[in-house]
Amino acid sequence: MKNQADSGALRTLPADEAAGGVSGAQTENSCENAGAEKGKRQFAPDVLRVIAMLFIILHHLLTGNIGFSQAQQGESGALYYVSYFLDGFFVIGVNIFFLLSGYLKINLRLSKIISLLLKIFVIGSLSVCIAAACGTEEYGGAWDIILSCLTFAFEHWFVYVYIGICLLSPLLNLFVEKLGGKAGYFVGISLFLLSIVAFGADYIYAADDGGGSLPRVSLLGTNAGYSILWGCALYLFGRLISLHGFAFRRRARFWALSFVVCSLVLGGVTAGLIALGQGAAAWWFIYCYNNPLQLFSAVSLLCICLHIRGGRGAFSAAVSFAAKHSFTAYIIHSDNPLFSPYRAFLLDCVSGKFWAQILLLLPNAIIIFALGIAVSFVYDFTLGRIFGRFSRFAERVCLAAGRKVCGATGRVFGGAKGDTKDS
Fold first, then answer.
1. Is 204 exposed, middle or buried (0-12, 13-18, 19+ CB in 10 A)?
2. CA-based R_g, the chain, Å
3. Mean pLDDT of 335-347
4. 238-251 average pLDDT score
5. Which of 290, 286, 278 is nearest to 208 (CA)?
6. Most CB atoms within 10 A, among 52, 181, 214, 372?
7. The pTM is what?
8. Environment class of residue 182 by beta-carbon count within 10 Å: exposed (0-12), middle (13-18) or buried (19+)?
9. How many CB atoms lie within 10 A of CB 250?
10. Confidence (pLDDT) at 343
């Protein structure tokens, strides 16, 4: 479950948040939704980004990446069941970010993707080097350290899936905008039905006979929702919700009830499957992101937050600030080498103490989120502007090279055609 969570370029997000719409990713580069004033952040989506990032952190706390590892050791105690039950509420964090990317609409800019990758590379490299110097992580030598730095960004599946969605966003945007009203509903229903098919089909490869003999295989590219295919589906759902005002056709209380019911079913069925000794089925049911219940739960939470009216004053500014820098919390919160001392400290503090682990969930998630915000702020203050200029320069170079290649290709084929005529 490493780096699960748990988001091109959106103008609303900072360069560090990435190209566009995910966790913080959407925050900085995300473009404004229809009707929003250009260049200004939106309060409701920012609230949802903060909630989604906290959900991702809480999800990984519960699945053992930061210190609640007893929940993954097959124990039959209360912690094991309660952890999975609670995770029914938190596991939707990544789906929320993909939905939000679609709702806000990604405006593809190569410079934002470059900025995102540079930020991840710098933070990852510093984490690896500091951890190696302090001895908190063991590496096989200088080459192992260099390799860890170079591959850090792509140890997070969400990063390359999100970049893939950003690159596909012009086609996805055009597709949705060409749909009529009824066609949009048809596409939405079709996507939902396809999620049911993909979810069921993935069970064939998620199931295990107990000996670990059946490998995880990506079926039709669905791969339990850890895929560009599912990310694109969620993006399209978000665009349809935005263009058709779906969130406001029901009151907030309806969406709140649907969110609670879906989450209770997710957690309850998972805990029940574990109690019946069906561990593989339980894993498939709760950790496949293409689970229709996860989809509807994430859509419900998105629609709840869209009913929030714009905030003002210091609270609104604080929410926007946290949302702007939220993507960095995703980068550092799970299995980050720099974070390992805190994981060890946390594990020692709560080991074997059931209520301590449960009661410390939210405080520790907030601490981790705050650390991510601090790292992101320091990066923006020190290196962000420099790398931002470099990213824009690299974008201009790439576009100029692309135009020259297209022009040369046109002249080659055009010349060939003309020669044929002359002859």
1. exposed
2. 22
3. 64
4. 86
5. 278
6. 52
7. 0.81
8. exposed
9. 14
10. 62
Buried b (16+ CB within 10 A) or exposed e, 52-74: bbbbbbbbbbbbbbbbbebbeee
* Contact criterion met (CB below 8 Å) for 246 and 187: no
Q: Which two tokens stand for residue 11?
A: 């103008």
Whole-angstrom distance, CA of residue 271 vs CA of residue 416: 68
Q: How many residues does the structure list for the chain?
A: 423
Report how far residue 207's alpha carbon sits from residue 159's, in angstroms, rounded to the nearest whole number.
Answer: 27
* 3-state secondary structure string across the chain: CCCCCCCCCCECCCHHHCCCCCHHHHHHHECCCCCCCCCCCCHHHHHHHHHHHHHHHHHHHHCCCCCCHHHHCCCCCHHHHHHHHHHHHHCCHHHHHHHHHHHHCCCCCHHHHHHHHHHHHHHHHHHHHHHHHHCCCCCCCHHHHHHHHHCCHHHCHHHHHHHHHHHHHHHHHHHHHCCCHHHHHHHHHHHHHHHHHHHHHHHHHHCCCCCCCCCCCCCCCCHHHCCHHHHHHHHHHHHHHHHHCHHHHCCHHHHHHHHHHHHHHHHHHHHHHHHCCCHHHHHHHHHCCCCHHHHHHHHHHHHHHHCCCCCCHHHHHHHHHHHHCHHHHHHHHCCCHHHHHHHHHHHHHHCCCHHHHHHCHHHHHHHHHHHHHHHHHHHHHHHHHHHHHHHHHHHHHHHHHHHHHHHHHHHHHHHHHHHHHHC
